[in-house]
Amino acid sequence: MQLMNTPAIRLGIVGVSRDCFPVSLTQKRLAAVMRELKKLKVDAVAASVTIENEQQAVAACDELLARGCNAAVAYLGNFGPEGPTTLFLQRFPGPRMACAAAEENRAVLATDRGDALCGLLNCSYNIGLRRLPVHVPQAPVGLPREIARMIADFAAVARVVVGIRNLKVFGFGPRPQDFLACHAPIQPLVDLGVAVMENSELDLLAAFEDAASDQTAIAAIAADMARELNGRCAWPDLLPRLAQYELALTKFYEQNLGASAYGVFANKCWPAFERAFGFVPCYINSRLAGRGIPVACEVDLYGALSEYMLQCATLQPATLLDINNSVPAELLRGARLQGIAARDLFMGFHCGNTCSSCMKSCAMKYQLIMNRGLEGGAAPDVTRGTLEGQIRPGPTTLFRLQGTADARLESYLAEGEFLDIAPHSFGSIGVVGIRDFARFYRHVLIERRFPHHGGFGFAHAGRTLFDAVRLLGVAALHTPLPAGTRYPGENPFGA
Q1: Which CATH class is domain 11-164?
Q2: Domain residues of the chain, as ranges?
Q3: pLDDT (tens digit, 9 = 90+) per residue, 32-46?
């Protein structure tokens, strides 16, 4: 399925030049940057005007917006005028970046030196005066090829920010009784620019019942499910009912985006759901995630947000998993741990919400825990509908952005691997290895009171998400610390 519901970024690049430097120096250097961006296939356009004064700053902003740009880069080809440069950055409404040209060789030093290294310092002071969130790369001064790579990286950062600022989270149902960690305040979401639309479980049931009238669409969706499962479903009779639910959610999404451009769901999924709908929703959650519409379990609004940010960062589906259980030693005999200590392994699990493209193997099954509680361990009926199996081995990014009980934003971020180790358990599940995770679990996840759900992407996206979270203004961003570097509150005398 094609990944939808994700911003496309068009970058506007504007060169800036201080009036005591030749404007041709910035223009020549910017032209070289644009040639390198073309090689990288980055969707970017250069403003026709080079900014030397405030009128040109306004004109450049207007031009780039008229050309469909939703993110912008101010490129100091020489020292640059800090006032007009930061005026441009202030007026541009999307994510913004600043970077500067390095001197190319010995020959330019005699008369064509640009001094942009110095100019970026002045620019940063004025960025601070205007209180602007502007992305500045780790090494922001470079030659055209280096600058082009920085800008390409920024496109991914901008995609996350644009997505968040144009996102609506649809919630269905109150958050579960014994999952207080999911009872997060919505004020921080609104502060980010995220719209929140909370609905009752009855609204969801009504949407499901209304969808029954479109039997043609239901039949087409059920046929697509059968193709995807390819014989790995013991209950083909269940597919039309699941298809009706998928149709209900997609119609709700289309009809209720309103002023937002993108949407995600955070839905109540147990225990009353099964009795009312006659199935578990996990497989449909997996299919929508595969298309680009994450559906978080247990009305986890911030879980849905975190999944979506991972999706925007990686351009791949993401999933939401419980940071769930330890790994018995017998599973590790003969396993390749890729240099990760056994203490830093855990299993990521959920009932069956990870899309099939992210699974090593999968089949439709039933939710074992719910079956015991709702059906007394008898032959499954209303607990059918999970997508279960081993999550595919490969790189992963563990990420969560969370609203705390006192309405602040905190986040954590770590890169690791899904290891090719058979979990020997149920659900969508995989063995995760993250270096230094054991201490991170204790001194960040537990100490900072993060909930049990984590967003998992299927690529390493730490650099992109780190910069995106900072650009969104989230100050509290936790990452694993290596041995020898203590966390606040960590006992210096050892475990």
Answers
A1: alpha beta
A2: 11-164, 166-478
A3: 999 999 999 999 999
